[in-house]
Amino acid sequence: MSDLNTVNAAGGTDAFDALGALYEESARLPFREYLEHHSVREAVGDVTGLDALDLGCGSGLYTRRLAAWGAARVTGVDSSAGILATARAVERARPVGVRYVRADATRPAAAGVDGSTDLVLSVYVLCYARSEQELTAVLATARRALRPAGGRLVAVTLNPDYGRGAAYYAPYGFTLTQPEEREGAPVTLDALLPGGRLHVTAHWWSRKTYERAARAAGFADTSWSPLTVSPRGRRLLGDAYWSAYLRAPQALILEATVAS
């Protein structure tokens, strides 16, 4: 496999710089296209006319989707210069009117976060926090971005009860490996894509830790919801294909709201 372009992101701001093209490619995996995308669309609801922020936007997949779904102003924020270069290149080639800001989500005073946002979307960002303090800081950035009353965070993150066993998710195009069972334990994802191998390391946090961090960040309420398969995904691949995944989905949606 030496001919593959292997990208390793195990931590640090620069670890994600080379991931832009592979993140774009990963959107074609069935579980992302027919399950994650569908579930995020259902969770955010009607965004027409809203001010939306994609926190930890990566290559801009969901930044662009928020614009397509009708948000009036959309900003993508990420700390990686390399992955933002991909996002900006896509915007130049196929402009949808979004803007991108380089800023560190672990710093609540991050640029581009101004307290006027109606909705913060954050997909696979919270699970990269390396400590509860860092997790709280990312949530505090989201909270600071939202309007003083009525704002909402929708976050896709690692399911604390994901299926154990390295090969559990192999039929869906990736594997998860977690050597230890503890708060903050590293969880490594490997996916073989046409453009190379995606190798990233996130961290395992319990629901209680997520909820405690959200309260500490200033959110009033939190709730969890599962991912669901789109009707098209069921038609194309069948219920049997999805059954094991749905028993223990690798991700869940965490919603946190600001007091009205």
TrEMBL record:
Q: Report keywords, A-Z.
A: Methyltransferase, Transferase
Source organism, top-level taxon: Bacteria
Q: What does the record give under GO molecular function? A: methyltransferase activity
Domain Methyltransferase, first and last residues per copy? 53-150
Q: Which GO terms describe its biological process?
A: antibiotic biosynthetic process; methylation
What InterPro entries does UniProt report for this protein, alphabetically? Methyltransf_25 (IPR041698), SAM-dependent_MTases_sf (IPR029063)
Q: What is this protein called?
A: Class I SAM-dependent methyltransferase
Q: Which organism is it from?
A: Streptomyces telluris
Lineage of source species: Bacteria, Bacillati, Actinomycetota, Actinomycetes, Kitasatosporales
